[in-house]
Backbone:
């Protein structure tokens, strides 16, 4: 008998028909003689609608209350899924994150899992139940409800698979697996049969939202091998696991596009030690994640400079709020923000042993007439910030340049 963790995302549980479809799949897995833990997301669009409601009341709502609100999305789905299994004659119990023993830190809206006590899950499984756990949520040691950041149900599934020592972890979604680019944007994208944790992690954090990046980080840390596959068919999906030697033969594994980026520029800040430190400490204390940073070299004799950084669009209002008093203190000219940018990246462990990747990428952009605003690289990725309006065209061009549409 195997213990299997299956996660079903928002589209897969988007209406009651689909929840019944999920229940059918879970029932078949149970009937084949397995113990099954199911993690579900909120029905598609629900989390977004809850956020919208909150913003209609206040632009920056209290984050504890935000978590209280957002956690209700997944709670609806667990109960409906349990009912759908009951209707098929199976024993099933729904559990909130807290009831499943998921303990987090207190950083509301993007809490980190501190530990999981899976005793209750094991007891219910041993009593013959399917256990249905609300994704994306947990509680602090002093019983405050928290959420794990957008897409956090992936993390719930992977963390539970690690804590329960599951034999298999399957992430069911609305595409057949991880592709060389978002198949909704790049039609010629191909499914990748096997991908390393590091490549998946880079792609996820660079905008390939098929997996939440923190969940991949967790999987890598605890060696959880998982499969990304469709809840609408039986096609084999993508296996995500430790890197193997052959993986370096492929130079570029995939192209990621992040259209949820924003840029903040602070003009005319003093060019002296401690200014950048203070700025980024303030942002760090507000739990705002910064991505690329560019500081202009000041002209000789000039005592001021300009600092720009990029971040998630969702954090822009908060960043502006904490930066405004600082900009005043520094006597800066002001804060400029823009949402009209996108980040385009190429990812592959093969980059470590192949040269000319940056050149090929920049040529593809040049041939398409796309200007590069910022560049950043790591051992296995190259990212550029470009104009949002031309981003899709640029993604196609780069994908084709590396021949990714022709993979078998
Ligand atoms: P779920 O609700 O199941 O978690 P998500 O919407 O979070 O599903 O993730 C699945 C979506 O990720 C797909 O519909 C697809 O548009 C998008 N996506 C982005 N990049 C990729 C990629 N490289 N491969 C597959 N899907 C991708
Ligand atoms: N419902 C949450 C979200 O939309 C978590 C998830 O779907 O994984 O971000
Ligand atoms: Mg998701």
Residues:
């Amino acid at each position: 008998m195997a213990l299997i963790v299956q996660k079903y995302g928002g589209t897969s549980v988007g209406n009651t028909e689909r929840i019944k479809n999920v229940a059918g799949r879970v029932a078949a897995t149970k009937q084949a003689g397995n113990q099954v833990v199911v993690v579900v997301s909120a029905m598609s669009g629900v989390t977004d609608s809850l956020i919208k409601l909150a913003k209609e009341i206040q632009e920056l709502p209290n984050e504890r209350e935000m978590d209280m609100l957002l956690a209700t999305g997944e709670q609806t789905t667990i109960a409906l899924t349990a009912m759908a299994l009951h209707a098929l004659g199976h024993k099933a119990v729904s559990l909130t994150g807290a009831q499943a023993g998921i303990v987090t830190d207190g950083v509301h809206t993007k809490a980190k899992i501190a530990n999981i006590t899976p005793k209750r899950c094991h007891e219910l499984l041993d009593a013959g139940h399917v256990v249905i756990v609300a994704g994306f949520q947990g509680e602090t040691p002093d019983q405050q409800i928290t959420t794990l950041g957008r897409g956090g149900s992936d993390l719930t599934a992977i963390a539970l698979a690690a804590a329960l020592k599951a034999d298999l972890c399957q992430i069911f979604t609305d595409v057949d697996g991880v592709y060389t680019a978002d198949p909704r944007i790049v039609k010629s994208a191909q499914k990748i049969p096997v991908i390393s944790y590091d490549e998946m992690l880079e792609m996820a954090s660079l905008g390939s939202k098929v997996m939440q990046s923190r969940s991949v980080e967790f999987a890598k840390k605890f060696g959880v091998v998982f499969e990304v596959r469709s809840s609408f068919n039986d096609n084999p999906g993508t296996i995500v696991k430790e890197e193997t030697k052959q993986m370096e033969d492929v130079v570029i594994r995939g192209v990621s596009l992040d259209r949820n980026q924003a840029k903040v520029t602070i003009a005319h800040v003093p060019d002296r030690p401690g200014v950048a430190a203070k700025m980024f400490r303030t942002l760090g204390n507000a739990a705002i994640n910064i991505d690329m940073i560019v500081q202009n070299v000041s002209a000789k004799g000039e005592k001021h400079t300009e600092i720009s950084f990029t971040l998630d669009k969702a954090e822009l209002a908060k960043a502006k709020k904490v930066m405004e008093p600082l900009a005043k203190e520094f006597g800066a000219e002001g804060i400029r923000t823009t949402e009209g940018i996108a980040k385009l990246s190429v990812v592959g462990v093969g980059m470590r042993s192949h040269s000319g990747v940056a050149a090929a990428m920049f040529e593809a952009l040049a041939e398409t007439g796309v200007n590069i605003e910022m560049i950043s690289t790591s051992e296995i990725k190259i990212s550029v910030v470009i104009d949002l309006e031309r981003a899709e065209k640029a993604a196609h061009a780069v994908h084709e340049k590396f021949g990714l549409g022709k993979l078998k």
Summary: The chain has two domains: 3-174, 245-408.
